[in-house]
Amino acid sequence: MNGELNLALTIAGFDGSAGAGILADVKTMAHFGVYAQSVCTSLTIQNEDEFDSPGWVIWERIAAQLEILFKKHTFKYVKIGLVEKAKILKRIVEYVREKSPDAYIIWDPIAKASAGFHFMRDAEQDDFLPVMKQIDLVTPNQEEFTYLGLGLAASRDEIELGKDFAVLLKGGHNSGPESVDTLWCNDGRQYKFSSPRIPGEGKHGTGCNLSSAILANIALGKSLPEACQIAKNYMDEFIKSGSGRLGFVFSSSGR
Known about the structure:
By secondary structure, the chain is of the alpha/beta class. The protein has a domain at 7-137 and 203-240: UDP-N-acetylmuramoyl-L-alanine:D-glutamate ligase (3-Layer(aba) Sandwich), CATH 3.40.1190. The protein is 34% helix and 20% strand. The strands form 2 sheets. The protein has an 8-stranded mixed beta sheet with strand order 2-1-5-6-7-8-9-10, sandwiched between helices.
């Protein structure tokens, strides 16, 4: 141990249950040996079963949080989670790119809370695509993939999945005996990561934890396909843990 931190930044919502959002991101990255600092985009009122309100943080306060952290560190690995709208996402990405042009940025789009609250606005659907071209990896589930128009944009040659940005389409919310995630990687290849579907009521914050695990392993020098496979294995442990909706992996077996 040389004392040098593997440092990352998560920009996301605060979930008091610690199942999702910045608390979950920090825990997951710490599991892999990465020290995560955080910027809060929303002060949600929720627990793992109920969602009351998003409590959006205004851009000026988001910018102030970013400014003081970037004053001390240059973040090379950044995860973005819950954002109020495309305009806020654009401002965040532009800020990060200005301060750290080569940063690896993951965006985990959140269309709906696991308790059912809807975030994304249909009026903004087309506004996300130009921003995503400035992001390295986007990790939608099927609903988010459809909402963002990624399949439609690819069919119209507006984007090339994996070339304009990498995409990991998560299969955890789909049906069938296998949970299959599909990665369009920026080397032009497509990868699939499969595991048996685990029965149960479903864990809270799976998307947050998966994307944070991927970013942590990218920060540790893994390739994107390797990071996705390690994160998939980690999530299998996470989903199997406990009997309720809160997942936890306390050991270091995910490394």
